[in-house]
Amino acid sequence: MAVFKPDNVEDLYEMGEVLGSGHFGQVRKVRERSTGTLWAGKFLKIRKSQCSLLGLERSNVEREVMILEAVQHPNIVTLKDVFESRAEVVLILELVCGGELFDFIAEKENLLESEAIEFLKQILEALRFMHGKNVVHFDLKPENIMLSDKSSPQPIIKLIDFGLARRICQGEEFRSTSGTPQYIAPEVINCEPLNASADMWSIGVITYILLSGLSPFQDETDEETLANILAMKFEFNDRYFSTTSSMAKDFIQKLLVKDPSERMTAEDSLHHPWIKPLTRSQKVKRNRSSINMKSFKKFNARRKWKMSYNMVRMCNRLVRLRLLCKSSDHDPVQRDCESDIEDTESKPASLLRRRLSSSS
Ligand code: ATP
């Protein structure tokens, strides 16, 4: 595994603008002092004591690093280096400059299904590769699907954020309830053993949204959303799917399948006629069908608004947290533990772990 270098990252990299924030820290643009090359620095706060709920356990960061090293693929963000200080670990990642795929699409006037498929294919290629190495992402959602350079005629997809990813070896049983409510598979909610098919469910949800601008299971509250997923409550309402091909609906229907063993794999998906048409008429249909751009733009605007709202909420929580920590400065043991008050106050379910950074 990559060596966690003890060097001070600022001696080697000049800090730049903040690119994004997650639950455990920030991602900033950084410039390598020796070469002038730009990278993305992911700064992850490490948990200081056993009783603290804030920050990540070092073992989680080690896992993210190990997985990033194992999944080197043109459609997956690359890890360059890792630095470690007492309080944080910094991952130096390839800088992904083109923003989120959904934002790129929302800027367009219209988009044919065949054009959307070009992006989907790249996502599926990345998944086929990862799943072939027994790595499952477990947090596929629009925020984690980026483009390397949006000005290029064929922008390249880059999957990011392997913070929840796992390597599940043959015979190993893995259960987890982490993820983002809108995109998680029924078996995650039911705390059943998981495998790569959980990612394929998320691809079904993402494709549904991409074509219609509607989120198949989303409801007023996360609890209702989760209940809709378990009840498999989704339909192709003509109001939103009037321009969608029947092949596209078939593709989604083969992914939004409750039984994970019946769901299409990444390999199957790449051979579905909507992705890889077998006849001329199938090809023509994809070029005649388009995504519901008006509805998609609305979905994306709402998603961005929610992300900003959640970010402000998270900042407010951090400010209150700092105040709490200051007031308990006299007791060092209490200081370590009290910084967690905000976390225990919020919903404990790990299912909602990523809510603040998601658009659930
Ligand atoms: P979360 O808690 O939301 O899962 P996280 O702490 O795991 O977040 P990431 O999702 O990896 O962090 O990154 C947070 C944000 O930073 C991303 O949504 C994206 O906007 C930006 N970002 C992450 N990696 C890169 C990169 N390599 N290049 C450019 N921007 C990036």
From TrEMBL:
Region Disordered: what ranges? 330-360
The entry assigns this protein to a family as follows: Belongs to the protein kinase superfamily.
Concerning InterPro entries, the annotation shows:
Kinase-like_dom_sf (IPR011009), Prot_kinase_dom (IPR000719), Protein_kinase_ATP_BS (IPR017441), Ser/Thr_kinase_AS (IPR008271)
Organism this protein belongs to: Xyrichtys novacula
Q: What keywords is this UniProt entry annotated with?
A: ATP-binding, Kinase, Nucleotide-binding, Serine/threonine-protein kinase, Transferase
Alphabetically, which GO biological process terms does the record hold?
A: intracellular signal transduction; positive regulation of apoptotic process
Q: Name one GO molecular function term.
A: ATP binding
Q: Is Nucleotide-binding tagged as a keyword?
A: yes
One GO cellular component term of this record is: nucleus
In this chain the Protein kinase domain maps to 13-275
Name recorded for this polypeptide: non-specific serine/threonine protein kinase
Entries under Pfam families matching the protein: Pkinase (PF00069)
Q: Which residues bind ATP?
A: 42
On whether Transferase is a keyword of this UniProt record, the answer is: yes
Question: Cross-referenced PROSITE patterns, in alphabetical order?
Answer: PROTEIN_KINASE_ATP, PROTEIN_KINASE_DOM, PROTEIN_KINASE_ST
Q: What is its EC number?
A: 2.7.11.1
Q: Where are the transmembrane segments?
A: none
